[in-house]
Amino acid sequence: FPDASISEFPTVTMATSLTEFTICSWYSIADKWSDRTIVSYITGDNSSELEVTIRKDGRVALTINWKTVVVPPIQTLPLSGWHHFCLVWGASDGKLELFSDRASIGSQTFASLESVTIHGGGRLVIGQAQRCMGGCFNGALTYHGNLTQVNLWN
């Protein structure tokens, strides 16, 4: 994503519902002065949503079904150079754990993320914050930099 543009993005349709996931990626951020979306997911009826954003302060914001939490509260991801991150979430207990360069840098349990399902049938977009399925992008959150090996596991 050499240019922060709402017209360039990879997309995948997700058929499976999620009650837990791990998302990992290598990243390097070109513009450290703005929040940058790694992935966003939304269903056609806008009822189910997922968004992972690296904030300008290095913390990670996770939004699931329109509920946003920030993890970890203290430690942050590095914002210069190439780095690897993973975010692990489970609906059974609402626990989030964040890894930076393969080391855990924080975990927290959020009651608002317990017993939540992200329904299948939507569209996953890399590098954009979508507000309707496959579009309505928020240009202020467009990823600017490099992403590689973006993986999402259920």
From TrEMBL:
Pentraxin (PTX) domain ranges (all copies): 1-154
Keywords per UniProt: Calcium, Disulfide bond, Glycoprotein, Metal-binding
Cofactor binding comment, as recorded: Binds 2 calcium ions per subunit.
Cofactor: Ca(2+)
SMART domains: PTX
Principal location: secreted
GO cellular component labels: extracellular region
Compartments it resides in: Secreted
SUPFAM superfamilies tied to this protein: Concanavalin A-like lectins/glucanases (SSF49899)
Molecular-function GO terms, alphabetical: metal ion binding
Top-level taxon in the UniProt lineage: Eukaryota
Quaternary data: Homopentamer. Pentaxin (or pentraxin) have a discoid arrangement of 5 non-covalently bound subunits.
Similarity remark: Belongs to the pentraxin family.
Name of protein: Pentraxin family member
Organism this protein belongs to: Nematostella vectensis (Starlet sea anemone)
